[in-house]
Design goal:
Blueprint (H helix, E strand, L loop, with lengths): L4 H11 L8 H18 L5 E2 L4 E2 L5 H27 L12 H26 L5
Antiparallel strand pairs: 1-2
Helix pairs in contact: 1-3, 2-3, 3-4
Length: 129
């Protein structure tokens, strides 16, 4: 049975904590980027955009790797948003004190990138039996 778009999205939502709803169009874009990135770093993954499913069952580990790649795009977007908020300064308003938030977001992003590298290495390293 082929893996469906929703399985990756469910995995993605299980690893982020956001009360705001993320637009589906953004999730679709992040999934397509994740598929492309993982396909370049491992072996091609066949994904049908119209049917929103993979050609075959890609397995839970690949689903989770794609979800983590999507989280990296999500956190990158949050860092960008935080940087924009931190730079709001005007005659009557100044927003500051978000350095802790920026630091936390950057640390989370760095941790995610390390975890992605490890997961991709596991996908590309043959089993030793």
């Amino acid at each position: 049975m082929a893996t469906h778009f929703n399985e990756v999205i469910d995995s993605f939502h299980s690893i982020i904590m956001d009360k705001r709803e993320i637009p589906e169009s953004l999730e679709v874009m992040w999934l397509e980027k994740a598929v492309a990135e993982l396909s370049v770093k491992t072996s091609p993954i066949e994904y049908n955009k119209e049917l929103r499913e993979f050609k075959s069952d890609i397995g839970q580990y690949v689903v989770d790797t794609l979800a983590l790649l999507m989280k990296s795009y999500y956190v990158s977007r949050e860092i960008s948003k935080n940087n924009k908020i931190a730079s709001i300064v005007g005659r009557d308003i100044s927003v500051n004190g978000s350095n802790g938030l920026q630091k936390y977001s950057k640390e989370e992003y760095d941790t995610i990138k390390i975890e992605i590298s490890e997961m991709i290495a596991n996908l590309t390293t043959p089993d030793i039996n």
